[in-house]
Amino acid sequence: MTDSRGGTTSGRYELMLRGLEGDPYLTYDCERSSLEDVEIEVGHAVAWISWHPHRQARWLTALSHPDDSETSARAAIEVALRLAQRCEVEGRSIAGITLPRGGFAMLPSRLRPTATDDWDWWCASAAAGGLAPPRLLLSTWAGTVPVRDLHPDDPRLAALLALASPNAPIRPGDPRVSRWAGIEESGGDLADAGGLVAMVALVPMESGAVHLNDVATHPLRRGRGLARALCATVASDVLAQGRPAVTLGMYAHNDAARALYTSLGFTCGRRNTSGSLPPG
C-alpha cells in the first residue's frame, strides 16, 4: 500500500502502473495530468483522485484486477476508502465515485450515490500482444458510407444530440474535441437535424489514444448500420495515424451498442458503475 500525495503527477501515474501493470484503461485513458492522489495494492487494485478543470470537480476512481477475484474486488474498495477518508480529513470534497460493478454495496452509506450509471469501457488497440488489433474488422465497414468532418459550431450537432442522445457527455464547442465527424443524408423527414443522420466526437488522450464520444444516430435512421460505418471509418483513421488505441464508454444496458462495437473488434475491458455524491 502506497500513496503519492507529495509526488509529481508523472510519479503518481508511474505508481498506478505498478499497481496494475499493463492495464489497458490505465495505459490509454487515465489522464495523468489530472492526478491528485493515489493508492495501490500491487497486483490487485488501484484508486486515484483526479481533478477535472473542465468539470470543476474532484472524482474518486478505483479499479480492481480484471481477474474478478474476491481479493481484488475487496482491495479496490479498501484503496477507495483510504482515499475517501483522507479527503474527508483534509477537507477535499469529492463530487463522485467510479467503482467496479457491484462495488457500491461494500461502501458505507455516506459514500453511496443516490443514483448510479452502469457503463462499460471498450478498447481497440494497435499494440502487438495487447488487445487484438481490429483493423481487419474495421476495414470491412470503413468507407462504406461517406463520412464528413463537421465544424464544431455546426448547429446540427446540438440538434441531433437533442434528438438522439440528450445526455451525451461532450457538447458542441468543447475544446477537448479534435474532430467532429458525421454522415449526412437529404430527405424531408430529417429537417429537424438538417440532414445529419449520425455523428461522433473524437477526443485525444494524453497517452496518444483517441476516445470516441457522443456516438449518435437519428431515431429515424437507426438499424441501418450508419453508426457502425461511422465508427469504423474514424477508428481506422485513428489507427492509420499511428495512434496506439481507440477507446470509448457505453451504458451497460445498450445491447445494440455492444453488438456494434464487438463487430468492429473492440474489446470490453472494464465494467464500472459511477455516481455523483450529494454536495457537502
Task: Give a short synopsis of this structure.
28% of the residues lie in helices and 29% in strands. It has helices at 9-19, 24-28, 70-90, 135-141, 155-164, 226-240, 255-263, and strands spanning 2-3, 35-41, 45-52, 57-64, 96-100, 117-125, 148-150, 179-184, 196-204, 210-217, 245-251, 267-276.
Report on this model:
The chain has 280 residues and is of the alpha+beta class. It has 2 domains: 2-112, no CATH class; 123-273, Gcn5-related N-acetyltransferase (GNAT) (Aminopeptidase, 3-Layer(aba) Sandwich), CATH 3.40.630. Helix content is 28%, strand content 29%. It has 7 helices and 12 strands. The chain has helices spanning 9-19, 24-28, 70-90, 135-141, 155-164, 226-240, 255-263; strands spanning 2-3, 35-41, 45-52, 57-64, 96-100, 117-125, 148-150, 179-184, 196-204, 210-217, 245-251, 267-276. The chain has a 12-stranded mixed β-sheet with strand order 1-2-3-4-5-12-6-11-10-9-8-7, sandwiched between helices.
Write the layout of secondary structure elements.
Blueprint: E1 2-3, H1 9-19, H2 24-28, E2 35-41, E3 45-52, E4 57-64, H3 70-90, E5 96-100, E6 117-125, H4 135-141, E7 148-150, H5 155-164, E8 179-184, E9 196-204, E10 210-217, H6 226-240, E11 245-251, H7 255-263, E12 267-276
Parallel strand pairs: 4-5, 10-11
Antiparallel strand pairs: 1-2, 2-3, 3-4, 5-12, 6-11, 6-12, 7-8, 8-9, 9-10
